[in-house]
Write a structure and sequence with these properties.
Elements (H helix, E strand, L loop, with lengths): L4 E10 L2 E11 L4 E5 L6 H8 L7 E6 L2 E2 L9 E4 L15 H7 L13 H13 L15 H13 L5 E5 L7 H16 L3 E5 L3 H6 L3 E6 L1 E7 H6 L3 H8 L7
Parallel strand pairs: 3-8, 3-9, 6-7, 7-8
Antiparallel strand pairs: 1-2, 1-4, 4-5, 9-10
Helix pairs in contact: 2-4, 3-4
The structure holds adenosine-5'-triphosphate and magnesium ion.
Magnesium ion binds next to helix 1.
């Protein structure tokens, strides 16, 4: 089976500052991968390269076997950006339904209005994050944690094959976080491939199958079991100042 995401000898610089160095990583169908690393270690940059939002200066990335710069079927990847709530414009009156509906746009042909099916999909996605009550609310009137859940609904509404999440539960209360992780695990069991950047070792311990530790270079990549039993673990954590909160 070919990997869904193949990263080969990837280098990325912001100006003359090297942020990703010779990254090689395969992500396979059904993986539930956590990417760990300290602040500024390149995690968001790596996700943006995978999504085709940033163009690496060296190396290549393939999605479903196709070079990312040629890949057109964007709806096959769902993305929850880091601090998405910071982008909410309080003046622009978008409803929750419209925001989640944006997640359907890449999949739709012209005309791009929402059909009954679309509205159903939007409602279902909101239900999964327990936000269906807010369908007709203005996004800017919701709390940060509620907005975050709406962004998660937007990422899953098109039934993507890969879900990429960048610290998705920042600002979400512990109980909702727990239910959200259970939802991710359920989606993963149904075949969804998940890549999550997180500082939360709770989800890492409970649900993820693979762990990658990034600190400009990929300093570790293996299964969760190997990660936990690795005699090098403490060394990796110490050397690379990984933030691990035990629950
Ligand atoms: N647009 C940019 N221009 C210049 N430098 C940037 C830019 N975005 C990020 N950087 C720098 O690149 C490095 C990696 O940033 P990145 O956002 O990928 O880190 P991260 O691992 O996601 O960190 P965090 O855990 O804080 O989210 C950091 O040193 C950051 O300051
Ligand atoms: Mg980041």
């Amino acid at each position: 089976m070919n990997p869904l995401i193949e990263i080969r000898h990837l280098f990325f610089w912001y100006g003359n500052r090297l942020v990703l160095e010779d990254i090689n990583l395969d992500i396979n169908q059904g993986d539930f991968l956590a990417i760990l690393g300290p602040n500024g270690s390149g995690k968001t940059t790596l996700l943006k390269c995978i999504l085709g939002l940033l163009k690496p200066q060296k190396g290549e990335i393939r999605l479903f076997g196709i070079l990312v710069e040629k890949f057109k079927e964007k709806w096959r990847l769902g993305y929850v950006p880091q601090r998405a709530t910071a982008l909410v414009d309080p003046v622009f009156p978008l409803s929750v339904e419209e925001v989640v509906g944006f997640g359907l746009i890449p999949k739709k042909r012209f005309p791009r209005f929402f059909t009954r099916e679309d509205r159903k999909a939007i409602y279902q996605a909101l239900k999964r994050v327990e936000m269906e009550k807010y369908l007709h609310h203005r996004l800017s009137n919701l709390s940060g944690g509620q907005q975050q859940r709406v962004f998660i609904a937007r990422a899953i509404v098109s039934y993507p094959e890969i879900l990429i999440l960048d610290e998705p539960t920042t600002g979400i209360d512990a109980a909702t976080q727990e239910r959200f992780y259970d939802l991710l695990a359920e989606l993963n069991q149904k075949g969804l491939t998940i890549v999550i950047v997180t500082h939360d070792i709770g989800i890492v311990n409970k649900h993820v199958k693979q762990v990658a530790c990034l600190n400009r270079r990929l300093v570790y990549h293996g299964t969760h079991e190997e990660f936990c039993s690795s005699p090098r673990l403490q060394q990796i954590i110490g050397e690379h100042h990984l933030v691990i909160h035990r629950h």
